[in-house]
């Protein structure tokens, strides 16, 4: 199962950039004991990397029993993180210091969805 974005994923992500801010939808499924490891990653993200790259957590919460979903489509946690641009997110994941803590996220998860979203035009 995919956990971390790869080079080809990031290249496509940047090529599809419509410009402006991006909100990353994170759907997380934890490994046994993974919540502790993810908490270490989340602390580094909040304290160091989000401020450095202009990101902010908009929402973080526990997943509940789905009302509408196929079997196996439930998630342990949901996270919404806003970045000023796709480029800011890409610079963050390429940061050498970030690379030293991202293993906490990788070790914590058995499966993840990391999906960029953009706001609908309200005009």
Automatic annotation (TrEMBL):
Name one matching Pfam family: DUF1330
* SUPFAM superfamilies recorded: Dimeric alpha+beta barrel (SSF54909)
* Taxonomic superkingdom: Bacteria
Q: Where is the DUF1330 domain?
A: 35-110
* Protein's UniProt name: Uncharacterized conserved protein, DUF1330 family
Task: Name the lineage.
Answer: Bacteria, Bacillati, Actinomycetota, Actinomycetes, Geodermatophilales
